[in-house]
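sorry to bug you again but im stuck and you know this stuff better than me. below you get a single protein, a line of residues and a line of whole numbers that encode the local backbone shape. mainly i need to know what kind of three dimensional shape the backbone takes. anything you notice is useful, everything is just below:

***
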Amino acid sequence: MTMTVVVTRNAPGRFRGFLSACMCEIAPGVYTSPRMNVAVRDRIWHVLESWWEPGPDVAIVMTFPDDTRPGGQDVRNLGTPRTALFEHEGVYLTWHALSASYEQDLDDPG
């Protein structure tokens, strides 16, 4: 059994109700379960996928340890995350676009 974390953004109420019944909501839209087995985790993900309908700025991300991956973590995603999430050599990385002002600060640190 492993720690599972689900984060929702602008998800319809039934997602929040369902996840709150299965996991502890530690912050708005952030759900954790420290000892969720694979069968329960897969069933929860199956329900989320079956209910999923794309919408503006709606996303759900689930992450949990996975010893078969070089980074030791697996990530499942519904919707478009605000950050670009990609896998490189078995490790998940995120990419954020830099704002124009931040790029300018990098070019001229003084």
Summary: The beta strands are 2-9, 24-27, 30-36, 59-65, 73-79, 84-88, 91-95. The chain has one domain: 2-80. The domain at 2-80 is CATH 3.30.70.240 (Alpha-Beta Plaits). The first helix runs from residue 13 to 22.
